[in-house]
Amino acid sequence: MNIDEAALDKMLKTLRERLIQSRLPAGHWQGRLSGSALATATAAFALSVVDGAKYGPLIRDGLDWLISNQNSDGGWGDTILSLSNISTTMLCRSALTVAEQSGRHKEALAKAESRLVNFAGSLEPGALVEAVDRQYGRDRSFSAPILTMCALAGRLGDAEQAWQRIKPLPFELAMCPHRLFKWLRLPVVSYALPALIAIGQASYYHRKPKNPITRLIRHLSRRRTLDVLRRIQPENGGFLEAAPLTAFVVMSLAAAGQRDSQVVTRGAEFLVRSVRDDGSWPIDTNLATWLTTLSVNALAAAEDFEQMLPSDERDKIRQMLLESQYRHEHPYTRAASGGWAWTALPGAVPDADDTAGALIALHNLGPSDKRVAEAAVAGINWLVGLQNSDGGIPTFCRGWTALPFDRSAPDLTAHALGAFGVWSDCVPDFLPRRVAEAIKKGLDYLERVQKEDGSWVPLWFGNQFAPNQENPVYGTARVLTGLHRVPWKLTSAYAPMLERAAKWLLSVQNPEGGWGGAKSVSSSVEETALAVDALAQLLPGVSAGTAGAQGQFFPAEAARSAVSNGVSWLVEQSRAGTSVTPAPIGLYFARLWYFEDLYPVIFTVSALQKVKNLRGIA
Question: What's the predicted TM-score (pTM) here?
Answer without folding.
Answer: 0.93
